[in-house]
Every structure is written in structure tokens, then in C-alpha cells.
Write a structure and sequence with these properties.
Layout lengths: L8 E15 L6 E17 L2 E18 L2 E13 L2 E10 L4 E9 L6 E12 L12 E16 L3 H7 L1 E15 L6 E5 L2 E6 L2 E11 L2 E7 L1
Antiparallel strand pairs: 1-2, 2-3, 3-4, 4-5, 5-6, 6-7, 7-8, 8-9, 9-10, 9-11, 10-12, 11-12, 12-13
Length: 220
């Protein structure tokens, strides 16, 4: 029997102190050092559905890196009561900035309502390359970010009809390099402002320019 066949998975207590993980077999290479975790009364699977249904956990790391991107003193605090999960704190300090987030999700509700808030200051744009499978385009620079969204995520239809919130971001010292460019090219990017209202997404005019590249877009 595999763990996927189990109806429920519960753990009374977890304690991890000063552990280290290094992944050098495939790209992107990553490393976590000085990892600590305390967790108790965990219910991780109920009625064959995974999630933090019950319990409390706190985790931290002295450092975490992926390729050349480094974060120090990372911390996360989360808890759940009767399927109502809360991410109370996620704080990732980079060398010149940070990312912080809170979130909530009701695993027990049929609609599974999600709320997510995130802010970033000088977030490395190089992180965007890990969102896609292709390495054809690489971005460098930083971004300030403010994200607030809510949605029902039980299925794709619910998500598409209930997604609401806003995203705003400003970009600094942005450069792009492609397979066809010998040197990085400087980009000027106007602030990104996007809103969503019950699945209807509106993107304000966005201008990207640099060298021979100039794009002006507006989506209603």
C-alpha cells in the first residue's frame, strides 16, 4: 500500500534542528542550510484529501539559495483548525529586499475559499525564470509588488468566475537577455496595474521599451 491509498495521515510531533539539503544533480541547483521546524498535532490527509487540516507548524532557515539568488533568515508560521488553514507569516529576506505573505484557505468548505496577500520590496526578477520551462528569456533587476486576491478554488470554473483582487508592481534596473542577444538589453517598464472582479480581469496600459523594442498594450 502506498501513502496515496491511505484515508488519513496524522503526525503527533515533528522536530527538525539545523538540517541541510543540497540539490546539485539537476538545474536549477538549490540549497537550504540551518533548517529548523517545530510542528504538532498535524492532520495532513483527511478523507483521501491532502492539506493542513489541523495543527501548527513553525519553520526557519539560516539561508536558502537557488542558483545565485540568496535569502537569509527565512521564517514561516502556519496553523489550521478544523480545516481552516492560515499562513500567519511567510518572510523571505533577500540580499537587498524581501518578500512577505499571509493567506487563508478553508479545506473543509466545498467551494474552498482562498485569500492571499503578498508584498515585496526589491524582489529579484531572476526568479521569473523558474516559472517557465524555457531558458530562452532571462530577466534581471528588481520589482516592488503588492498583491491581494480572493477566489473559490474548488475547480477551474469556480476560480475563473470568482477571482477578485488587485496586483500592482514597479520595476527597477530591468534587463532582458534572449538566445538571440549577445548582451543584456536594458528595458524601461511602466508600473503594472491589474484588477480582477469576479473573473473579469483588467490590465491598465503597460509600456515596455528598450533599444529597438517598444510595446504599448492595454487590455480591458
Amino acid at each position: 500500500m502506498s501513502i496515496d491509498d491511505l484515508k488519513s495521515v496524522a503526525i503527533d510531533r515533528v522536530a527538525i534542528n539545523r538540517s541541510q539539503w543540497i540539490q546539485l544533480s539537476t538545474k536549477p541547483f538549490w540549497q537550504v542550510t540551518g533548517f529548523n521546524m517545530e510542528a504538532s498535532d498535524l492532520l495532513l490527509k483527511r478523507d483521501y484529501q491532502w492539506g493542513l487540516w489541523q495543527g501548527k507548524a513553525t519553520a526557519s532557515a539560516n539561508s536558502a539559495s537557488i542558483d545565485k539568488i540568496l535569502a537569509n533568515q527565512v521564517i514561516m508560521e502556519t496553523e489550521s483548525k478544523e480545516g481552516k488553514w492560515q499562513l500567519n507569516r511567510l518572510f523571505i529576506p533577500f540580499e537587498q529586499g524581501y518578500f512577505t505573505s499571509t493567506a487563508s484557505l478553508d479545506f473543509g468548505a466545498p467551494s474552498q475559499p482562498l485569500a492571499l496577500n503578498a508584498k515585496a520590496f526589491s524582489l529579484p526578477l531572476a526568479l521569473t525564470q523558474y516559472l517557465f520551462d524555457s531558458d530562452d528569456i532571462q530577466l534581471t533587476g528588481t520589482a516592488d509588488l503588492d498583491l491581494n486576491i480572493s477566489a473559490l478554488i474548488a475547480d477551474n470554473l469556480s476560480l475563473s468566475q470568482t477571482l477578485s483582487g488587485s496586483l500592482s508592481s514597479s520595476f527597477y534596473n530591468t534587463e532582458i537577455q534572449t538566445l538571440h542577444s549577445e548582451q543584456p538589453q536594458t528595458l524601461e517598464v511602466t508600473p503594472l496595474k491589474m484588477t480582477a472582479d469576479r473573473g473579469v480581469i483588467e490590465l491598465e496600459s503597460l509600456e515596455i521599451s528598450g533599444g529597438t523594442l517598444r510595446v504599448l498594450r492595454a487590455i480591458q
